[in-house]
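Handout, page 2. Input:
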Amino acid sequence: MAGLGDKAKDFLNSDKGEKASDSALDKAAQFAEGKAGGHADQIQKGRDAADDRIGTGGDEGR
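Output:
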């Protein structure tokens, strides 16, 4: 029986999971840009790095 961590990893590596993680990361980046104006480049780099670590690395959500 697969553990919860395995199920989460499998979901994030699916197309549906990639879209969900991209959406969440995009919303977080937009929020951060609103709070830390003038740092959009750094925020986008952080968003992209998180996407590379979490999902399949695609950019379908942008």
